[in-house]
Amino acid sequence: MKESKLKISWEKGIKIEPLNLWLDPLSRQPLAVVSHAHSDHVRRHHHAIMTPPTHILIDDNLRPEQATLLSYEKELEMENYSLRLIPSGHILGSAQVEIVTEYAHVLYTGDIRLKQWDGTQTYIPQADILIIEATYGIPRYSFPDPKLVLEQIYDFCRKSIKNGYTPALLAYAMGKAQELMKSLSPVGLRLALDSKSAAIAEKYRMLGVDIPDFIRLSNGLEGDEIVICAPSSRHELKQLKRVVAAVVSGWGLEKYGYDPLVRAFFPLSDHCDYQDLLEVVKQSGASTIYVTHGFAKEFASDLVNRGFNAVALC
Ligand SMILES: [Zn+2]
Fold this sequence. Notes:
Elements: E1 7-10, E2 14-17, E3 21-23, E4 31-33, E5 47-50, H1 52-57, E6 66-69, E7 75-77, E8 82-87, E9 95-100, E10 105-108, E11 129-133, H2 146-162, E12 166-170, H3 176-184, E13 190-193, H4 195-206, E14 215-216, E15 225-229, E16 243-248, H5 253-256, E17 262-266, H6 274-284, E18 288-292, H7 296-305, E19 309-312
Parallel strand pairs: 3-4, 4-5, 5-6, 10-11, 11-18, 12-15, 12-16, 13-14, 13-15, 16-17, 18-19
Antiparallel strand pairs: 1-2, 2-3, 7-8, 8-9, 9-10
This protein binds zinc ion.
């Protein structure tokens, strides 16, 4: 088969030969595509291709020396392939990467979410070869309807405040925190953010996202606020006297259950759950699948049992 002329391998990132192209490598490379701004996908490459929002959102010290900023759906013609970035529904600026060569259509999902919290769906292009993330690639990760989870989060916040406690939602600073802000704004309570989430919220605003007003946790609370705080900024909660925390993450209490402040867990994710990963595979139409990240081995073997030619890359 012609597509077998492409060699896809893992060397601290996805390498496609003979294109000499890297996707989200974790070592500095001459030319790489950066699918989105989360730091586990970004290194300071010599030349990187990314969406304009990704270029703004990545840490200053990880910005490439040279960047090709490619808007969604625009085609970039390279010497022996063309490349297109397509929304992946994960965070602002996140992209699936479509690579068209004379041998095959390749689709790399990057971190992907098929169904948004508001029910809209991410479009999956057709491909011969799919490279898919499998962060939640085992059946036990099956997430409930986000609308129901958001209702539970509203209830948790209202009840905590009624009982004289400050509710603190522990959520990743980039993407999750800003989506939570937008989802919580109709509740009508003030939002307070840790410094990391606040800095990213300002960048989201600069990029045209309608982010509700917020105060900074470091300036002290005025009363009746909902706090949104990155797990890595957990120390910023120390100044609060009566606080109850809830984890907002696809990962279960296995990661955060040890924390004495944590009273609740809300499985709200910006990744696909197991069923949606299978749906991405189906919608892509690909017969050859490479699996990366998370439960890569488990998901690849699941796909093999379903009749696909699948292999775990890492
Ligand atoms: Zn990510």
